[in-house]
Amino acid sequence: MIKAIKGTKDIYYPEIEKWQFLEEIVIDVFSNFNYNEIRTPIFEETALFARGIGESTDIVGKEMYTFTDRSGNSVTLKPEGTASVVRALLEHSLQKAKPLNKFFYISPMFRQERPQAGRLRQFHQFGGEALGSANPYLDAEMILIPYIVMQMLGLNDFSVKINSLGVPESREKYKAVLREYLSDKVKDLSEESRRRYETNILRIFDSKAENDIMIMNEAPKILDYLSNEDIDHFEEMKNILDDAHIDYEIDEKLVRGLDYYTNTTFEIVSGSVGAQSALCGGGRYNLLAKELGGVDIPAVGFAAGIERILLACKNEGLLEFDPYPLPLFIVLLDKYYDRVAYNLSLYFRGQGVETELDYLRRSVKAQMREANKNNAQFVLFVGGEEINDSKVTLKNMANGEEEKYSLDSLEEIVNKIYSSDEG
Ligand code: HAM
Asked: Does residue 251's CB lie within 6 angstroms of at least one atom of ligand 1?
């Protein structure tokens, strides 16, 4: 038996209803903020991610699904969406068509991480990217949008963390201070952190090793080394979040795992999902377009993990729906009329009434069981004596009421079903 690849999942009923419910909310909220959907390819030239996300990051160094295709090109399944959106913007010169482009996406992403609860190899993100402005209102908006989505899902147990990494000049100054602080402590750090000391010093803040955490708790704080402009931008964003009544906490250890960030970084973390607690992450990346295409386009964005959000919903007892009611189930009383029944189903479907009937040629009893399983609101009986008078019987499953209708006045059945829906 061939099985699905480790760290990937099939998504089907009843779980799929939760995905559809979430995706509808996501699309509604993005549309409400006037974001446009963008769909980029599932794979890209490897160099896009290597340059965009950064050679020294875990994603590029250890986690990408990279392979050589039959033409000898190195291609990579996208591990995240931001680099692709920037590539698309530059490739189609969309910054010339509109000075500010606001995009959203819902897409699978691929990272070869060790699978565990909330961590998959093919996972799904919804994300937003606003390209063309350094306005702090957009930084706040990138927190506001996932925040609203989570509220609409009914989630309670989550919190917002924000930080600023400043522009590269102030960050380099800070890195030098951090290097100095750690110089006599490197030997006590974990092996991973000793490596990061050389390659990507800020990421030592992400270490889970107890001793590393103790050392980093005492480290100089990044916000003390930022320029006045960086601090002003950060303060403005905080004021906007305050006005929008969004609670947040400043976390100066929030350095994030991708190299493209400048100024704002943030995460929304859940208290209910265990170790993989980041439901959403993002920040500003004012230099990425320059890095990838030589054009200055300040930008900010976020991405949220759909599996993790659904896990948080499950742990908070949310989205436990009853199966959706089915407006109409047609029960065939004798096989001879199966064409009539099928044509009736097409008529009702054409009128926008979701309709099902039995394709398995089962007994009337079994058909009724199926109607109940489908949570049918009405059952239409086709066949029996009455069909000789061109009549069918409609049964209201909520109260057991039965009424006969003529095949010449099917619109009455449609009206009956719709009017019961309104009630
Ligand atoms: P990220 O923090 O790498 O950022 O991923 C964003 C979210 O995707 C995480 O908070 C998490 O919920 C989910 N996620 C990441 N890896 C996995 C995994 N292996 N399994 C399940 N869920 C996962 C980005 O991807 C950036 N592109 C965000 C961004 C957009 N920054 C600016 N614009």
From this structure: no
Mark 227-245 as b/e (b = at least 16 C-beta within 10 Å): eeebeebbeebbebbeeee
Quick one: which atom of ligand 1 is closest to the CA of 280? 10
Candidate from 65, 260, 262, 308 with most ligand 1 atoms within 8 A of CB, to mutate:
308
Establish if 133 belongs to a structural domain: yes
Listed residues 315, 336, 363: the one ending a domain: 315
Q: Ligand 1: distance of its center to the CA of 262 in Å?
A: 17
Residue ID of nearest Cα to ligand 1 atom 4: 281
End-to-end CA distance of the chain: 50
Determine if ligand 1 sits within 6 Å of the CB of residue 358.
Answer: no
Residue-level pLDDT, tens digit, the chain, 423 residues: 999 999 999 999 999 999 999 999 999 999 999 999 999 999 999 999 999 999 989 999 999 999 999 999 999 999 999 999 999 999 999 999 999 999 999 999 999 999 999 999 999 999 999 999 999 999 999 999 999 999 999 999 999 999 999 999 999 999 999 999 999 999 999 999 999 999 999 999 999 999 999 999 999 999 999 999 999 999 999 999 999 999 999 999 999 999 999 999 999 999 999 889 999 999 999 999 999 998 999 999 999 999 999 999 999 999 998 878 999 999 999 999 999 999 999 999 999 999 999 999 999 999 999 999 999 999 999 999 999 999 999 999 999 999 999 999 999 999 999 998 765
> What is the chain's length?
423
CATH number of the domain at 258, please: 3.30.930.10
Nearest one of 239, 255, 247, 82 to 166, comparing CA atoms: 255
Specify whether the CB–CB gap between 297 and 95 falls below 8 A: yes
Q: Which of 315, 348, 380 is the last residue of a domain?
A: 315
Number of domains the chain contains:
2
Is residue 411 in some structural domain? yes
Q: Is 9 in the pocket of ligand 1 (CB under 6 A)?
A: no
Backbone angles phi, psi at 37, to 5 degrees: -70, 145
| Distance from residue 293's CA to the centre of ligand 1 (Å) | 24
The domain in which residue 354 lies consists of 326-418
Question: Ligand 1 in contact with 196 (CB < 6 A)?
Answer: no
Residues 282 and 366 in one domain: no
Domain membership of residue 214 (yes or no) is no
Which two three-digit tokens encode residue 50? Answer: 């290597």
54 lines ligand 1 (CB under 6 A): no
- 296 and 370 share one domain: no
CA distances from 87 to 292, 334, 397 (A): 7, 61, 55
The answer to whether the CB of 139 is under 6 A from ligand 1 is no
